[in-house]
Amino acid sequence: MRKLAVCFSRRGQELIKKINDACAARGIEAVTGYCCYDGAEEENGFLRAGGSAENWAKEHFSPGNALIFIGAAGIAVRALTGLPADKLTDSPVIVIDDGGNFVIPILSGHAGGANKLAATLAELIGAVPVITTSTDVNGTFSADTFAAEQRLTIADRAGIKKVSAKAIEGKSVTISVKDYPPKEPVDVIVADETDAEYSLLLRPKRVTVGMGMKRDTDPEKLERFFLETLAENSLTPEDVYALCTIDRKEREKALLMLRDRYRIPVLSFDAGLLSKAEGEFTPSGFVEQTVGVDNVCERSAVMGAGGHAELILKKKAADGMTIAIARRL
Fold first, then answer.
1. Residue 231: exposed, middle, or buried by beta-carbon count in 10 A (0-12, 13-18, 19+)?
2. Which domains does the chain have, with CATH numbers?
3. What pTM was computed for the model?
4. In the chain, pLDDT over 90 holds for what percent of residues?
């Protein structure tokens, strides 16, 4: 997830610098800083936010971005007017006062990870994270956080409220994973489909997508290739457990864009490990000479899917890109 911060004062700009100094010391990806005030310095990687906070928010409120407002919460609230649409897909948004005292997630705390990001930022600058989501405040089970952390798809979002309300009331929340199908009604069930009675169904993400690409492949081109291939196989990004590739490709900009936009983690493997993948794969002498193993997309998809994986789409190639799909058990 790309972290974008906008400030409205010199103190705000200094705070972003402080955050990035702390990120550098810990090997954490830096925040991209934007300035939105007269006399702002555009040095040290800062960019100018054209126009207003509202324009900046409209431009950057999109999948894959986390927005950080350095200033008053009211600025963020007004700037976001009309933008939030879905709690499960909205960009995470955080407010930090320009004194660096409080870090407040105000949007997409669970599914988008704003609460976790706020805790990290607070630790980096010695601030207090201000968490307001009910399940966190009450120290109870959060269904949408559980789903995000376990890479599960929420089949019926109405069930989130039912389960959360029960947890907040201090009642036990029952989850069926191992004992399936459950003999009695449960609150949460992890299954593809079921006839059992439940409040919330969480579906396992069943496929991994292996990808190879030329260096500096255009991100939009890779995205089209990815989405078209999924659609051809009656799949959506929500079905994908992980994007898989060889280690030397894990930082490709195009792959990271897919990771951030669709909230799908990237799993990478070195050539030696890929060569040990079990199965019959489409060999390429050129690929082997270039990266040290005869196939990247099929082998990485199978490795990412784990033991006894089934390769359901063998290597498909187009314009320097390759893709394959494996099914997890």
1. exposed
2. 2-132 (3.40.50.11220), 143-204 (3.40.1390), 207-327 (3.30.420.180)
3. 0.81
4. 75
